[in-house]
Write a structure and sequence with these properties.
This protein has strands at residues 5-11, 20-26, 32-38, 44-51, 57-63, 73-79, 85-91, 98-105, 111-117, 126-132, 138-144, 150-157, 163-169, 172-178, 185-191. The protein is mostly beta strands and 207 residues long. It contains no helices and 15 strands. It is globular and about 45 Å long.
């Protein structure tokens, strides 16, 4: 309900010593009413979360429990409102690094998540956005960057289902707007305040 609060993160309180992802529900008095931890043999982190139109919880983060040791793949998990697991997906290549930092949903309950990866080439990271269906099947994915390392940290969806993404490119803050199918970059801008700049999140003001 609107009185409940969902929080995600990670903890060492459970498991065999490595970090596990944590999802917790609080009531209006901020008392924990439900929680779940999830993880494998190594470190698992949940970084961002959102609710879809059916109050299912979609979480994103990263995991080193799959793939090669000392490598990281992105992790997406979907729970119902009672914390029953509905779907899980790992993305990336087992010998590379892939991170997801934020997630949102569009008007069709499709899942849009952003982050950064070096799976598309060698060296520096590129910004990454992926669109998935409600069962976490991949519909489209796009990477983009410059000669500088690029990262995406936040995403919001407008009333035309277009993702607005923010992050950083080198020492500059970055804003990118894409078409709903992710095929077209509608707007891309780097900016600074005179010093190195990072944009972590944004909010789309209603008309």
């Amino acid at each position: 309900t609107t009185d409940d609060v969902i929080a995600v993160g990670y903890t060492k309180s459970f498991g065999s010593g490595e970090y596990d992802g944590l999802v917790a529900k609080f009531d209006s008095d901020l008392k924990i009413v439900n929680k779940i931890t999830c993880g494998g043999i190594r470190n698992d982190y949940l970084i961002g979360a959102t609710l879809d139109a059916d109050n299912n919880i979609i979480c994103v983060g990263n995991s080193s429990s799959v793939g090669a040791q000392n490598r990281t793949m992105s992790l997406l998990m979907k729970f119902d409102s009672n914390f029953n697991l509905l779907a899980t997906r790992w993305c990336g290549q087992s010998n590379k690094f892939d991170y997801r930092t934020a997630v949102n949903t569009d008007s069709n309950n499709n899942v849009i998540c952003v982050g950064y990866t070096n799976t598309s080439g060698e060296g520096d990271f590129e910004g990454l956005i992926t669109k998935l269906d409600p069962n976490l099947g991949i519909i489209a994915s796009k990477t983009f960057g410059t000669v500088e390392p690029d990262y995406l940290y936040g995403v919001r969806i407008d009333d035309q289902d277009r993702p607005w993404c923010v992050g950083k490119s080198g020492d500059y803050g970055k804003l990118v707007v894409l078409s709903s199918d992710l095929n077209t970059i509608i707007y891309s801008k780097k900016f600074t305040c005179g010093y190195p700049c990072t944009i972590n999140d944004l909010y789309l003001m209603p008309d």
